[in-house]
Amino acid sequence: MRILAIESSCDETAAALVQDGRTVLSSLVNSQVAEHAQYGGVVPEIASRRHIENIGGLVRGALEQAEMTLSEVDAVAVTCCPGLIGALLVGVNFAKGLAYAANKPLIGVHHIRGHIAANYIAYPELKPPFFALVVSGGHTVITRVKDYAKFEIIGTTRDDAAGEAFDKAARVLGFPYPGGVYIDKAAQRGNPHAYALPMPVIDGHPYDFSFSGLKTAVINLAHKAEQKGETLDANDLAASFQHTAVTMLCNRFFAAAQQYGEKKLVLAGGVAANSELRKELEKRAEAGGYELFIPPLALCVDNAAMIGSQAYYEFLAGNLADNTLNGSAYLSIDYVNEGKSSKVNF
User: Would you say the pTM of this structure is higher than 0.85?
Assistant: First the structure.
């Protein structure tokens, strides 16, 4: 089955052709990072406008790269949640029109489910059940993947997502946007034990996360140093921040896996590109006898190939959409939609 997939949940416009959920026939991504960098973050209105300008050309390009015509496509898939609502609606409405005009089935895909599915492309042997740690700019989730379209949340963030905390810490340290990659580079030159930073625990919810206190601690250290006229070692603070965040993520992920008896683990999301997180997960997995799957860097960022992969399994589960499909900025990964039309209120 060949699925034409579209992704526009934030500031990347993407289109891809994916066959049977595992084979990428084509994949194109247009990034807006350079434009948004001057504002220190994504400007939703600008992102939506660029999606409108880029989406048609990217879909045509994906078809050409796969040497296919629209008539040869078996279904159209699109990210419908969660994300920036204006950006989502550009993709959703384009996909709805395309599917209707071509008389093809329409599949709405949850963005975070898509990030997990990136691993199906990288590892053809990977099958549920498994535990997944999804870490991105807007989401931090530990989820049990019971089946390809069945999810159970084990832990989630109560405030800032890990990626958001990375970007905000980077800003106060004077690094450009997006800050995660600059924090990672600076941390490699710094001392991860130079600063004692908080690692909040949610009472009664041992697998949930809170990154706002960690982010605020970095901001306060930087501001106090500035007020006193002191020189702050940005590399040391970046290293201490990253080490604390990674330790928090790994501690809770492996603690959850141990309690639930799950030995197969998956990493996903934009922050999955972080070098320390990848190394620490690999070290602990080897020591504990876990089977670990980490996506290649190219599949960590937002892309449409991962959406096409997950769409295949949503299709098999009977989760199809119609022309009432809408976008949703905040829909949990564990929403129940088994064998029902996606016309339910996303």
Answer: yes
